[in-house]
């Protein structure tokens, strides 16, 4: 067992999860990695097992397959357990830990029609909207979590009482071996709490202010979220060179606004590179925009940013 938040080194940390166990099967083009204990890991995180599996696929650029009935979660290609464990840390940070208290006791609430993902912390009461820039958020919005007493994370997809009363004709089971984690064959799901938001009860669940000013603020936020989701999709359909140009303009503007240094600014820059899926090319863009004749002093000023992008080797070369 390891700490859910592996940045916490306290051995008495109460939130634990099993280490990922990966088994490589097949040969040649048919090679794939089966995550043997994904249901147990997902249960410890209180998230459907499909979410971290799909997250792995997005991060690795690989197709994923789900067979919830037989508890088989597969990522195409050969991947070792330690690599997947490191990737899982990224999923946990984005979709499990509370940004306020860093406690993993959070619940996701997906508003499918609005295209937003809310997160609420049971421990401290903090609520926020999940950043939609990662590719896996599109999958989560199309396949909201379903709260099921005792094992919602391990066996998602069963009908709720509300679904049964509504006369739903689908059984809610995940189609076995769904290529590329495609959600087209999966029915939309609803939950009373802790899962997909019932549109009629959303205000009650979140305890929202119903004043005119608050309603207008939420309307603007919803429009912003929808626009952001559209921009993410459109940008990813562009060629790599076009996406690099978008990142170039972004960095240039941040430099003009003096919003390059500092932890939050650096995280936003790295997040933009990930959103555009050009992190491997981000170093060249940063160097072109940020470095000039005063390179020696600038290296020191921007060192943390280059390190966050993963360009330590680049910095060493510049230092030499």
How would you summarize what this structure contains?
Helix content is 44%, strand content 11%. It has 320 residues and is an alpha+beta fold. It folds into 2 domains: 2-206, Defensin A-like (2-Layer Sandwich); 238-319, Serine Threonine Protein Phosphatase 5, Tetratricopeptide repeat (Alpha Horseshoe), CATH 1.25.40.180.
User: How would you classify the quaternary structure?
Assistant: single chain
Distance between the termini: 43 Å
- Write down how many β-strands occur, each being a DSSP E stretch of 2 or more residues: 9
Going by helix content, strand content and strand pairing, the class is: alpha+beta
Mean pLDDT: 75
Percent in strands: 5-15%
Widest beta sheet: strand line-up: 3-4-6-5
- Percent of residues in helices: 40-55%
CATH topology of the largest domain: Defensin A-like
Low-confidence segments, given as residue ranges, are: 148-208, 312-316
Enumerate how many helices there are, as a single number: 12
Shape descriptor = globular
**What is the top-level CATH class of the largest domain?**
Alpha Beta
CATH architecture type of the largest domain: 2-Layer Sandwich
Order of helices and strands: EEEEHHEEHEEEHHHHHHHHH
How many structural domains in the coordinates? 2
Report the C-alpha radius of gyration, rounded.
21 Å
Biggest sheet, open or closed, and with what strands and sense? Answer: 4 strands, antiparallel
């Amino acid at each position: 067992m390891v700490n859910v938040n592996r940045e916490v080194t306290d051995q008495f940390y109460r939130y634990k999860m099993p280490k990922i166990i990966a088994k490589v099967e097949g040969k040649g083009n048919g090679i794939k990695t089966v995550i043997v204990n994904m249901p147990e890991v997902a249960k410890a995180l209180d998230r459907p097992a499909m979410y971290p599996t799909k997250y792995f696929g997005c991060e690795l650029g690989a197709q994923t397959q789900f067979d919830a009935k037989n508890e088989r979660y597969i990522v195409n290609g050969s991947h070792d357990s330690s690599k997947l464990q490191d990737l899982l840390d990224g999923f946990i940070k984005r979709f499990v830990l509370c940004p306020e208290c860093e406690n993993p006791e959070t619940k996701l609430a997906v508003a499918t029609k609005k295209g937003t993902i809310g997160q609420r912390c049971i421990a401290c009461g903090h609520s926020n909207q999940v950043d939609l820039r990662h590719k896996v958020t599109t999958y989560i919005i199309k396949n909201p979590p379903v709260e099921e007493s005792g094992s919602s994370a391990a066996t998602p997809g069963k009908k709720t009482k509300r679904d049964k009363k509504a006369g739903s004709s689908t059984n809610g089971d995940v189609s076995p071996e769904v290529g590329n984690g495609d959600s087209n064959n999966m029915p939309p799901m609803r939950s009373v709490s802790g899962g997909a938001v019932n549109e009629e009860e959303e205000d009650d669940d979140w305890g929202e202010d119903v004043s005119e000013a608050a309603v207008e603020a939420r309307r603007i936020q919803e429009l912003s979220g929808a626009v952001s989701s559209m921009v993410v999709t459109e940008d990813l359909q562009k060629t790599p060179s076009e996406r690099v140009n978008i990142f170039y303009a972004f960095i240039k503007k941040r430099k003009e606004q003096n919003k390059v240094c500092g932890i939050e600014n650096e995280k936003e820059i790295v997040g933009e590179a990930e959103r555009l899926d050009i992190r491997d090319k981000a170093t060249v863009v940063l160097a072109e925009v940020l470095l000039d004749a005063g390179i020696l002093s600038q290296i020191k000023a921007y060192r943390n940013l280059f390190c966050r992008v993963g360009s330590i080797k680049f910095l060493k070369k510049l230092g030499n």
